[in-house]
Every structure is written in structure tokens, then in C-alpha cells.
Amino acid sequence: MEIDYEKIGLKVGLEIHQQLDTSTKLFCNCRPELFKEEPEMTFERRLRPTQSELGQVDPAAYFEFQKGVRILYEANKATSCLVEMDEEPPHQLNLEAVETTLTAALMMKAKPVDEIHVMRKTVIDGSNTTGFQRTCVVALGGEVNVGEKTVPIQHISLEEDAARRTGEAEDNVIRYRIDRLGVPLIEVATAPVIKSPREAQKVALAIGRILRATGKAKRGLGTIRQDVNISIPHGALVEIKGVQELELLPLVVKYEVQRQLKLLEISQELRARGAKEEDVKKEFFNVTDAFDETKCNVLRKALDENEQILAVKLPKFKGFLKQELMPGFRLGTELSDRARFWGKVGGIFHTDELPAYGLTEEEMKKLRETVEAEDQDAVVFVADNPENVKDALKAVVERAQEAIKGVPEEARAPKPDGTTRYMRPRPGAARMYPETDIPPIQITEDDVGKIFSQLPELPKQKLKRLMDEYELNHKLARQVLDSKYNKLFETIVKESKISPTTVAAFLTETLKALKRDGVQTDKVSESQFRDVFSRISVGELTKEALPDMVVWLSRHDKKSVQEAIENLGLKTISRNELEAFIEKVIKDNRSLTKERGENSFGVLMGIVMKELRGKVEATLAIKVLKEKLKQKI
Amino acid sequence: MSEEEELSGYKGEALVAIRKAEAEIGDLIRITRNSQIYEGILIPRSEYGDEKHVVMKLKSGYNIGIRITPSTKIEKIGKGAKPTFAAAPPLERNPELPKISIISTGGTIASRVDYRTGAVRPALTANDLYSVVPELANIAQMDTQILFSLFSENITAKHWAEMAKAVSKKISEGVEGVVIAHGTDTMGYTAAALSFALQSLPVPVILVGSQRSADRPSSDAATNLIGAVTAAAKAPFAETAVAMHETPSDTSIVLHRGTKVRKCHTSRRDTFKSVNATPLARIQNQKIIMLTDEYRKRDPSRKLVLKPKFNKKVALLKFHPDMNPSMIDWCVEKEYKGIIIEGTGLGHVGSYSFEALRNAVQQNVVVGMTSQCIWGRINMNVYDQGRDLLALGVIPLEDMLPETATVKLMWIFGQTQDVEEAKKMLKINIAGEFLSRTLPEKQAMAER
Q: Chain B window 383-402: which residues touch A at a Cβ cutoff of 8 Å?
């Protein structure tokens, strides 16, 4: 189905979150790094919902609390101190991060605020040990240009990254690792003016490039994350949180539009059939008896463990639960996601997908009789302990009522295929209050002037300069621009006499190919790259030796370039040695040269390079071989 | 409320500009400066802020500060809505549950944040408590009393006396336990003071505080309070104790004897430690586990003996290299009744202080020796310096905490003016301040 997004009135807004590569975290002096090893310490906490200034308690948070959810935090001493443990007040705001944010803000023509006030934004899922995220607006307004279009920026903020989940909840305990907590994040929020999936990707890419141009952006999976707000007329504002891959972004938008359109269609049809919200009641029937003899494994197990099977009737819903909203995702899946979240159950059964799973026609008939379902009704049932079952069915009923109404507002999480699943209700009015432990920071006109005078080039300008100044073609220039070695490229070119195209191709394409083959090119330091190129520049090494050098250096930590050359036997040979070697090759193959004359070049060159690869420039070898061959014939 | 208070924190140019616009805190305002327009709610300014910035809350919820220049214009564009807190649901008392009393003296635990300003304000009615910590309703029937709203560093001996009387009154009314909400900084001193002032307790008196303010989801206030109320309602002992976190985790609350407890960390939840003693009990999964057999048993029929008088003419002096002995002389001149020395190691001071100490003792000032090591017992017989001090008449105070010794001497001089009587009382065990055995306990902030 091709959708005309312009016509349906799609509106998308983005919040781009980019981790910063500062020397310390945002509110303490820990290193902003993650650890892979087993944690050195753990501690367990509960987060208690507090009343907002409006006297409201976030319903999802309160629900989780009532369910007795506990949080187990993991930490090690290299990456966390008492600040992340919420055992010590935060230190002052990291000024390196503020400067980087200001740099990015000025590049996007945003207006810095005069005084930064750090706020606490309530987040109670356990991802912050405090129960809130510290965040501050650094600049307002601004814009980013994408092709012909100017996308307005609403604000640019600096905030602390959250702890990361390590594993699924077990026995009501959620595990989080606090190494990531406190890593500085720049948040760029655009106005909801994006009108197509493709455009969303382009805008995200453009903002990402500007953030990277500050030179302080972290790179790698998970270092940049996008929250996407999507709405269509008559639909609802749905927030999809934490899209990590840019390629996924257009797909996420596309599927969400598809989902909302389909939900609107279902809502219309349901109403046409006579479905009414008030007819979907929280009236649950104990149907355990209907499955006395069941062959269905899930139900059998539940019955053996003395659990209950409760059912609810969804009047007029027959057939709708199997309608597909996104690939592999039906209205029934939507109901099931809600049941899982609110009821902590494994899943639901519904009559649109049955008989199956070992359930029989006979059992379905009994089920329908027990709940007094009419022909057009669907029935949903769940097996678990009575409390969970009731919570799950309540959630099912509420979601079914929303299906009659249209599209519910909610926060969703992306899956690797671009479809999404229910995450939680959208948080109510933003609950922010001042972080009184951190004094405000003033930004003077002098501060702004100083940063403005040292502003990095905009990606667009830099692309043009790379092409003009170094005569790189568009593709190579683009690759250099997006590469983490973009500064190194210019350094090497300025230090050596090697052609910019050679350096650029090596730092982008060659390294990428090596990486694909499993070489850990990141282990080679920038100073090692510079050393290698300077040796090539003075003829001490050959270009052909580059890949071998990188492979060797990546496998030998802390070894020098000199050691690599010696170990690989890559020392270049002198002109005299080369001439002598080529004369010997010609001599050894006299019969061949006699027979084929200058046509023997190819074969001879093969022999020469087999022996001398990496020790001599191929161009020089060709030249000498041609000369010598001419002389001999 | 005066206008100055209404525009709290603002002064100088910013105040003039706000007044000119006739805006009040909470009003919707528009600030225009060089074609830049900001709209939001006027927010109070911290007293430490300068005179040149106005703080507003944007629609997004963020606060920002805007500099006021001669060309900046402020307009009031809307009247602010006053925030209202949702009323807590009416109390549901379960008449089966034990009756306890909560007395609030201030501190982080008895405060809530003003969301507009971020300022922390005192609040601790029973309804507040039930709404913030609904679990309490299943543990005890509570009545609450706000006695003071003080930061604990402002609490003095006269407040100890009032607390002791308030507790005594509640106990005479028949409650089965008393909880005192207190700032943590000097909670150890108050715990010691009440241990001496409330003798022969029939039911437990539990002090409780928190290291993270109650408005935060991660606050330790609720778990500490649940622990304190549980102990007041159900603990088998009848002593003055402090209830706080045992570790950085929310999983256990530990109860420390009032004369043996000290604040040992500036910010951690488990800041309170029992020094030279095993804690009294631990509360885990709503169960009280006693950690020692030596305690006074709960007995509601026992008659409380109230001795709420203290004398503030007692000093705590910490010896350090080159400490000027005239500090001791000063105490004598100012007619101090007692001096507790925090000596080095086993209980020493430099011999250059001896003369001043001899003079103090001769002038009938009671001088007691404790150790700045915090952990361990005084022994003044090991070295010459110690023996000399004993000969001067300095009283060794065994394993007593310096803070507890100070409070005890303040209390003693509230009971008697007789110096020999005072010396005798200082040496006998009144409220578990001495233990005859020092066990190899885990010390300080060791990891668990």
C-alpha cells in the first residue's frame, strides 16, 4: 500500500539524543564509559511515586510500585561513584559538556539562554536511581536545513543519560547497570513539521552530522537515539522512544502511520457494526471448567498449578482481532501487549485465532456458552493467578474500548524490524521541578562570542571544502565527512606528500573492508596512522604495505610502527637493490623474454611483486622493469 | 505577606523591572529583548542569585534565566494559577492496630518541596504521612504532632527538654511507642539526650530521619519511617533508638541504641553506625530481628521517669597538635561545669596542656576523656602521658562516644550541682553508654 503522506497530513517531530565524549560525566568525575565485566557491587531500591505539583500521580508508575517492583542496580568503581548511586548530591554541571552543547546550538543558529537552570524530570521506571532525570535547556529556537526545507528547532538541552537495562524482570526485580547513568546527552527537539518517513531520516541525519561536527560526539551503536512523535489527523500523538538505527527511522514512521490508519478503519467498521464502548464491560467469567480436559499445553500447565482461567466478552469484535495493523502484528497483539504490561501475564488467548494451540471446537463452544457470547462477539481469556488475570483482562477491556474510539495516545518501543510494541501510557503534563542542589550557570555574551569565533564548519561547508581543497570526488568527500577520522585525514594530508584521494580512500573504504573482515582497526591509534603515512611519504614504506601494517598493529597492543615494519619484513629496498633484483629475474627467465619479448612483462611483473610486495612502490617496479626489459631485448 | 516576600529572591534591577510590570510570582509574563521574545511563568529566584536575571518556567516545563538590560521589557500577560495539593484521602483507622505517636521536629524527613520554587518546606500531618506512605495505615494507628520545624543543627538542649516532655506526655496517654522525626545532622546527640532524660521507658522511642528529601521517588524517608513505626508499634525493647538504612539498599532498616550511635557519612543513606556496640535490631521484610539479648524489655506497666533538665555549660574540645591550652582556660573563666576532651589514641593530650587541665580540675571543672579515634576504648594506663592525666584528675570514659559523653555531662549538671556527685554519675552506666566488652565489629562504611 503506497501512502500519500502529504495528503493524509502526517506530522512528525524528532528528539535526537547524542551522547557526548567528554572526559567526565555530567554531574561527577566518573569516566563516561560502560563496563562489560561482572558488577563489583549491587544494591536494591524501590522508587515511590510522588505527587506532582498538580496533585497527580503518574498512573503507570503508581501501578508498578503497587506491584512491588524492586530495582537491582549493578555498578563498578571505575564508572560509578556515590553520585550515580544517589548517595551523594550531584557536583557542578560539567562545563565541557555545556560548551559542546553551546557549540552545537550556535551551529544550528539557536539562541543560548542567559542562565541555565538544571531541572528534575520525574522518571520512575528505575532507569534513574534518583527517580528523576536531570536536564536543562541550553538554547532555544534555531533551525536545520535539509535540502530546500528549513526545519525549526524548539530547544537544545543537555541532560544525563539513564542507567541501562540488563536483562528482563525476574520475580518483580528489574536489573539496571548504572555505568551509563550521567553520561552527557545533547537533546535536539524539532518542531513537528516533518511530513514523510524519508524526510524524518534526512532531518535526523542532518542533525546527527552537526552534532558530530563538534568533535565531541560519541560514536557507535546506542550513542545516538531518536524519539519520534508521530500524529495524523483523527489519529493520536504516539511517541516512539529510543530508535537507535537511522535506517530504521523511515520504517518506524511508515508502520506507525499504517497502524493508525488501520485502527481508524477498524474503529469505523466496529461502530458501523453497532459496537459501543459501554457494552465492553469489565465483567469476567471463570471458564476454568470449560478446559478440564484440555490438550493445550499452556492451559494444562496453568490448571496443574491451580491457576484460574478467566474470560471476557468483547461484543461485536469477532474477526477484528485478527486484522493486521503492521506486519506480523494484529489488533489481538495490541490487546496482548497491554495484558502483558498491566497484568504481568505471559499472553492472552482470543477466539479469532482459535481453534489452535491444541484447543478444540468443543472447548470453544463451551467457552462461548459460559460467557454467553453471541455470534458476532469475540472472547478473550487468560490463565494466571487471579490478581494478574484480572489486571490483564481490565487492560484488554480498556484497549478494546479505545479501539471503538480510534487511536490511543501512548509511548511505544521499536522492534528490530521497525514495528513497535506498547511501552506505557504517555506521561502526563511534564513534571519538572528545579534541581536545587546545582546552582544556575550564567552564559555571558563573552562566552557566546568566544564559542562563536571558534565554531566548527557546518557539514555542508566542510563537504564543499573537502571537494575543492583536496579534489576529492563527492562520494569520497561524503565518506570522509562522516568518518571519525575526518580530522586525521586533514592532518595526514598536510603532513605528507601523499595524494588526498589515497589517504581518504584508505581511511574510509580500506579500513571499512578490513573491519568487515574482522580486523579491529579501532585499536590502531591516530598517532600510529600518522607515523605510517609519514614513513610512506619519505619512501620508507610503500602504500601497498598499509593493510598489512594495520592488521599487525591491531593485533599487537602497544607495539610501535617500527616493530611492525621489522616483524613484517617490510623495509623498502633501495633503487640499486631493486635494479639488481629485476636484472636477476630477467636473467633467470631468459627463455621467456626471448620467446615473448616485451609481452613477457606481465609474467615478470608478477614474479617481481610476489617477492617485493610492500617493500617497493609498484609504480617504481613497473618503471624499472620496463626500462630493463627494453635494454635486454 | 509583604511584597518583598511575594517577589522572593528578587532584588535590584530585576525587582524594579518586575514591579514595573506589576507581575507576581506565578503570573504568566512576556519578556522582550532585542526582538527576542520569551513567555512563561514568573518563578522565584534563589537568594544567592544575582540582581540581573529573571527566572521563568517555559511551557515545556523547563526553567531558564533571562538577563535584564535597559532595553528589556517585561509584561504581565496572565494571572497565575495557584498550585493546589490534592487532599489526602480520609484516614481509615484500624482499631486492632497499636497506637503510636509521631512527633515532628523538622529536617528532611518532615518536609516537602514547593514545586514552583524547589524550596523545601515543613509538612507532616498524619494525613500527609498516610498519603505519602499509605503502608503506615497497616502497621499502626498514628497521631502526629508538629513540635518544631528546625534544621537539626539549630536544635539545642532546650529542645531536647521539650522533646522529652512531649514524649512523656504521649506515653502517659498510653501510646505503645513514639516516633520522632528529626534532621540527621544532630540526631545522634538528641538520641543520647533522650536516652538520659527518659529513664525506665515502658515503650520504645524511635528517632528517624532521612538523607534524601521526601519529595524524591528515591527518598529513604518512607522506608525509614515504615521501619520506625514498625519498631515503635512492635519492637520487644523499650529504649531510645535511631532507625535508618543499614546499607545503600532499601532492603533493611537498622535500629541503633541512642547512646551508641553516630552519624558517620555526609551523604549516604546508611550514615548512622553503632559505635563500639552491636545494633539493637534489624527490620527486614516487615519483621523485627533482635541482634542482641541485652536490652530493656517493653513493659507498658513500667513507670517512666522523666528527667528533662540539661545544663549547657559543658564543652567538647578536640585535641590537636599545637592546640592552644588557653581554650581550656577560657572554659574555666567562663564558669563551664565540665569539659569532655576528644584526646588522641587511647586518651592523650600533649603535655603542654597539662597545666591548664590541672587548673581546670582544681577549679572544680569536671574533665572527662574520650578518643577522637571514634572506635575503641580509652586506656590511660598504657603510657606515661595517660597516667599523668589520670593523676591530674581527668576521668577516663571507657568506650563512650565523645558526643554522648558531652550530652551526658550536660544532663548530669541538669540533675546536680555537686561536683563529686557529678563525677560519680559520669562513671556509672545510666543508659547503655558504657559496654564492658569491645567486640571485633565491622567498622565504618565497610561494604556489605
A: none
Domain covering B99-306 in this structure, CATH number = 3.40.50.1170
What is the greatest pairwise CA distance in chain A? 104
Window 85-104 of A: residues touching B by CB (8 A cutoff) are 85-89
A130: contact with B, CB 8 A cutoff: yes
Helices A197-213 and A474-482: crossing angle in degrees, nearest 10, is 70
The amino acid that residue B397 corresponds to is: L
CATH class label, B3-78: mainly beta
Please give the Cα distance from B447 to B424 (Å, whole number). 40
CA dist., res. A298 & res. B409, Å (int): 72
- A612 vs A59, which has greater pLDDT? A612
Q: What is the pLDDT of residues B351-379, one digit of tens each?
A: 999 999 999 999 999 999 999 999 999 99
So what's the architecture of A275-404 in CATH?
2-Layer Sandwich (3.30)
CA distance B371 to B397: 9
**pTM for this entry:** 0.86
SS (H, E, C) B299-351: CCCCCCEECCCCCCCEEEEECCCCCCCHHHHHHHHCCCCEEEEEEECCCECCH
Domain boundaries, chain B: 3-78, 99-306, 314-427
Tell me the sheet residues that pair with A14.
A228
**B314-427: same fold as B99-306?**
yes
**Number of Cβ atoms within 10 Å of the Cβ of B369:** 28
Phi, psi for residue A143 in degrees, rounded to 5:
-160, 160
**CB–CB contact B250 A114 (8 Å):** no
- The model's pLDDT over A291-331, given as tens digits with 9 standing for 90+, comes to 888 888 888 888 888 888 999 999 999 999 999 999 999 99
DSSP state of B79: P
CATH of domain B314-427: 3.40.50.40
User: What span, in angstroms and rounded, lies between the C-alpha atoms of B123 and B126?
Assistant: 10
The residues pairing with B199 across neighbouring beta strands, listed in sequence order, are B305
